Amino acid sequence: MDKKACDKILYIDDKPFAIGNEKNLLEVIRNAGYDLPTFCYRSDLSVYGACRMCVVEIEGRGVQASCTVPPEPGMKVTINTEKTRRIRRMVIKLLLANHSKDCTTCSKSGECDLQEAASRLGITDIPFECEEKKHPLDTGNPAVIRDPNKCILCGACVRTCREIQGKSVLDFVYRGSNTIVSPAFKKNLDEVNCTFCGQCVAVCPTGALRIRSELDNFWKMVLDKNKKVVVQVAPAVRVAFGEAFGIKPGKNLIGMITAALRKVGVDKVFDTTFAADLTIMEEATEFVNMLKSKKDFPLLTSCCPAWVRHVEQKYPQFISHLSTCRSPQQMFGAVAKELLSKEYGIRREEICVVSVMPCTAKKSEARRKEFSVNSDPDVDVVLTTQELIKMVKAGNINFSALEPQEMDSPFGVFSGAGVIFGASGGVAEAALRTAYKLVTGEALGEIEIKPLRGLKSFKEFAVNIKGEVISVAVVNTLSQASKLLEDIAAHKVHYHLVEVMACPGGCIAGAGQPYSIDRMAIREGRLKGLYQDDVDSRIRVSYENEEVQKLYDKWLQNPNSEIAHQFLHTHYHNRKRITGEDIGLFRKGSEVLPKTTVCVCVGTSCYVHGSYDFIEAIMAKIRAEGLEDAVMVKATFCLQQCGHGPNIKIDDQIISHATVDRVSEIFDRYIRVKYKK
Amino acid sequence: MIDVNEKKFYKVDDIVKKHGFKKMNLIAILQEIQGEYRYLPEEIMTYVATVMNLPLSHIFGVATFYSQFSLEPKGKYEIKICDGTACHVRGSEPIIKAVRNKLNLTKDKKTTDDLLFSLETVSCLGACGLAPVVVINDKVYPQMTPEKISKVIDDLKSLKKE
Q1: Which of B64, B67, B70 should we substitute to test contact with A (largest number of A Cβ atoms within 10 Å)?
Q2: pLDDT, tens digit, for every residue of A165-185?
C-alpha cells in the first residue's frame, strides 16, 4: 500500500477500512458492513448526536457517538464492547420508560425504529418506574397527526423543517424533562405556518408524527353499494409501492396496483398521469400566452400544494405569478365528477373520487374550499402510498400473486411526459416539450432535458424557442424555493418558468411514500424507475395524448377556454401565518362619541412597507384632532392582502397602500367624516 | 385582544431597534420586553418574530427554556420565597402555604386575579444567614414567619389603596 492510501485507513474491530470521503465515523462504519442503529442521524441533515445509539469505543478516546466523530487515519474502533452494548440497551430502556405503551394499536407499528431497536437488543423489561405524562394530540389538520407522547426528542423533524424546508414550524420548547417538540405557543399545526409537506413525518423514527389515515373512509365508500368509487393513482406511487413487499425501488407496479384496487371492489381505476397531461396542455398554453403578451415572468408551477401554501403564507407578492392551473389531482377530480356523473346518470355526490398520492399535503389540498361544488369535494378521499399498502394488506390480498391489469379508459391513457411529474424537474420538462410545439409547431429536438433531471435541489436550463431564449429554473425543497424567490424579487436572477416541488427530489420522496431510513439510495431508485417509464411510453408528449385531445374536442374546446377555466383553473389567496390576537394600542372608553376601530397590519410584508410608521403617524393625528377617546387603534397580524401593503382596516373596510404620506387623507376620508359636527 | 398601552408598544419597537434586530441579542431583547410588561405576551412575541425575521417557534423555545421568562402576567409585587436548603430547614414551607392561602394561589395559579401579587419559589437567594428569606420586587424580607409575611402583604395591599 502506498503512503497516501495508508493515510485514509482506519481500523474497525481490527480490520482496515478506507475512510473515503465520509465526513463522520458512522458512515465509515456503515460502509464497512455494520448496521449500527440510530434515531437522530440522517445523512442529509446536520449531525445532532442526541440518541447515543451509535456509540463505539475508540482507542485512547473512550466511548463516542460515532455520528459526531470525524474519521481519522489510524483510528482503532470497536463496535461491540461490554460498555457500548450496555449504553445502547440503557438508551432504549430509558426511552421506553417515558414512551406510550400502545404499540399494538400504533400506526407506525412494524416500521417503528424504536420498536425495532428494542427487539433487536432484546429489551424485555423496563426497570424504571414509567412516567406517563399525557400530552394532547394535535389532530387539527387533514394531513398530519402530532403525538408528543411518542416523541423521543431525536430532533429529526426539527432539523428537517429548519434545514430542508426553511420553515422552522417545529422546535424544542420548554426544558429538561418537560421538553417537547412543538410549534410556537403549543399551537396546532393548522394554526401556524405549516404547509403539510409531511417531511417531518418522513423522518420521524416513531409514531410521534404520523399520517392522518383516511382508510376507514375509503372502506366505507367502497362497501357502500350506492357509491361509484373511482380511483386515481399518481405517477410517483407506482415506483415506490413495491418497497413494502421487498421489491426494489423503481420497479413500476401500476398493473398490480390496478389489479389490487379492482379486487377490493373499486369501480374504476384511472391514472393521475392522464390529468398531468391535461395540466401540461393548460399550463403550457398559459405559458405561451404569457410569452406572447410579454407578461411579468416568471410563471411558477402550482402542482405542489405545500409549495402553493408556502407562497400564500410567505410570498404573497408572488401569488399572481402562480399558474392558475389546478394540480393534476384536482383537475382529475373536477373532470371525473362532472363527466362520470353524466355518463352513469347519477348525482355528483354519488361518485366518490379517491386519489392515491405520494404526498400528505394533497390531503390538505383536497379540503380547500375552491375544490368543491355545493360542498361536495372534487376529491373525496386522499390515500398515501403507505395507506394503499395497508389497504392491500387489510383487504386480504396476496399481492405477489396478482396478475397486472390495464387501467380503465378514458382516463387511463397517458404520456411519458405525465409520468415524470413525479420527479423534480419533470413538470418543467413536460411543459417545455409541449410549449415548444405550441410555439414552433415542431417537436422539441432533444426530448429528454437531462440538465433538469436528478436529485439536486437547484437545476436550470435555457432553450431557444423561435429566437427567444427561455430560461427555466427547477428547485426542490422550500428552503431552496424561498432563496430563489428572494433572488428573483431582488432582480438578481431572471427566469421565465420556475418549477417548485417541496420534497427533496420531488414527489418520489413525498412524505406519503414508504418509510425508510436509507433515503438517498431509495430516491435514486424511484427516480430511475420514473424516467424509464417515460422511455417505455408509447407517447412521450402530452399533446399526443389522444384521450386528452378528445376531451377538448368534445367538451373543453381549447386549453385556457372559458369552460377549461371553470373546471381546471383556480385562484389563490393570502394566508395568515399564525392565529392570534391583536395588540390594542389605545382604547379609552367614551360614552359620547361613536367608536371607530383602526387596525394596522404589522405582519412581515406590511411591516417592511412601513406600517409601523403609519401607526405612529395615525396616532399622532388622532391625538391632534382630540379623538383619542373615540378611535381605538390596534396592531394586527395580517389582513391577508399582503401584496398591497401596508394595509389597514377601519371598521370593516380594508385600505391598502396606507403609507405615511396618506395619513391625513385617510383620516379625513374615513375617520373625520364620522365626527363632523 | 390584549390591552397593551401605546407607550409600551413603542418601547418594544425601540428595544428591538436598539439591539439592531440581531438574533444574538434575542435574550436581552426578551428580558427588556419582560421588564416592560412583567411577562412576555404572545402577541408581542409574534411581533418580535415578525420584525426580526425569526421563526416564532424559535422565540417560543427560548422563552420557555429560561425560567426567568414568564408567559403569564406577573403581579405588580413579585414575591419570591426561598426554598433552598437553609431556608427550607428554617421553615420556608409554612410561609409558602400561608401566602398561597392568603392570596388564593396554588402551585399552578401563580398570579392573583387583580395582577397585584405573584408568587414563585426559588432555590437560593444567597442570603442563607437571614433564612427564611422572602424577596418582594427588589426588597429583602429576612427571617420571615407566616404571621410576618401576612402583615407584609397587608401593608402592600393598603399601599395600593392610597
Answers
A1: B64
A2: 999 999 999 998 899 999 999
pLDDT given at position A208: 97
pLDDT of residue A677 exceeding 90, the answer is: no
Closest of A53, A33, A32 to residue A41, by C-alpha: A53
Does the predicted interface ipTM exceed a cut of 0.90? no
Superfamily of domain A215-263+273-397+411-568: Fe-only Hydrogenase (Larger Subunit); Chain L, domain 3 (3.40.950.10)
Max Cα–Cα distance, chain A, nearest Å:
99
Question: Residue A362 catalytic?
Answer: yes
d(CA A108, CA A207): 5
d(CA A427, CA A421): 5
**Average pLDDT for A401-418:** 94
Contacts of B64 in chain A (CB under 8 A): 173-175
CB contact under 8 A, A580 and B46: yes
Quick check: bond before A298 cis, omega within 30?
Answer: yes
Please check whether residues B88 and B109 belong to one and the same domain. Answer: yes
Per CATH, the architecture of A583-675 is what? Answer: 3-Layer(aba) Sandwich (3.40)
- Which residues of chain A neighbour B2 with C-beta distances below 8 Å? 581-584
Tell me how crowded residue B136 is: count the other CB atoms within 10 A of its CB. 19
Element (H, E) at A144: strand A144-146
Bigger pLDDT: B5 or B152?
A: B152
Name the packing angle between helices B42-52 and B56-65 (round to 10°): 130
Q: Which domain holds residue B135?
A: 77-161
Q: What pLDDT score was predicted for residue A333? A: 97
SS3 assignment, position A223? helix
Q: Is residue B124 part of a domain?
A: yes
Between B2, B59, B66, which is nearest A581 by CB? B2
Residues in chain A whose Cβ is within 8 Å of chain B:
162, 167-175, 182-185, 192, 578, 580-587, 602-604, 607, 612, 616, 619, 633-635, 637
Q: What pLDDT, in 10s, does the model give residues A273-325?
A: 999 999 999 999 999 999 999 878 999 999 999 999 999 998 988 999 999 99
Q: Could you tell me the three cell numbers for A440?
A: 414552433
User: Does residue A392 or residue A595 have the better pLDDT?
Assistant: A392
Per-residue pLDDT reduced to its tens digit, A624-659? 888 888 888 888 877 777 778 899 988 888 889 999
CB spacing of B46 vs A169 below 8 angstroms: no
Check whether residue B81 and residue B157 sit in a common domain.
Answer: yes
- Closest CA of chain B from A633, distance in Å: 9
Cβ contacts of B3 on chain A, cutoff 8 Å:
584, 587
Instruction: Tell me if chain A has a CB within 8 Å of the CB of B5.
Output: yes
Pair A371, A345: CB distance under 8 Å: no
In this predicted structure, the answer to whether residue B1 has a pLDDT above a threshold of 60 is: no
Domain boundary among B65, B88, B107: B65
- A214 is a catalytic site residue: no
**CATH number belonging to domain A93-211:** 3.30.70.20
Output the pLDDT for position A252: 96
Interface check for B44 against chain A (CB to CB < 8 A): the answer is yes
Q: For chain A, give every domain's residue range.
A: 3-80, 93-211, 215-263+273-397+411-568, 583-675
Comparing B9 with A515, which gets the higher pLDDT?
A: A515
Note whether B61 and B82 are same-domain residues: no
- Taking residues A373-395, what's their average pLDDT? 96
Number of domains chain B is built from? 2
Q: Is A283 a catalytic residue?
A: yes
Of the candidates B6, B60, B22, B23, which has an alpha carbon nearest to the alpha carbon of residue A612?
Answer: B6
What CATH number has the domain spanning A3-80?
3.10.20.740
Q: Over 60: is that where the pLDDT of A1 sits?
A: no
Tell me whether residues B55 and A616 touch, CB distance under 8 A. Answer: no
Three-state SS across A623-675?
A: HHCCCCCCEEEEEECCCCCHHHCCCEEECCEEECCCCHHHHHHHHHHHHHHHH
B106 close contact with A: CB closer than 8 A: no
